[in-house]
Please model this.
Amino acid sequence: MGFFKEFKTFAMRGNVMDMAVGIIIGGAFGKIVSSFVADVIMPPLGILIGGVDFSNLKITLKSATVDAAGTTIPEVTLNYGVFINTIVDFIIIAFAIFLMIKGINRLQNKKEAELPATPPAPTKEEMLLEEIRDILKSKN
Model:
């Protein structure tokens, strides 16, 4: 029972829950970016370079064949067009994450710049406590 209790404590910790939410949102974001690349960016890019559909670009290593029993053996291909789409996906995701982190850093720097350079003057309570501390030190 100790193992399960420890696991429950671990799983319910704030960082783990935040990470789980981030992974789920990241997966959804990845699907959006993949669709954006495949459906919005690559078709015009294909037209610009001569009407090429990147997802259909491939090198056939072995053509499809039919064996003696009549079963079709599928072709073996290197789908480099899909690989190009994946690289574009990665670049867009990396750029989006870069912009997000850059924005967060800018906000952090702005907050640090707003902080006063010198500590605030002690309050009346703090001054009174310091006097009491000094009196107690002198008695010892």
About this structure: Helices lie at 2-11, 14-48, 80-114, 124-139.
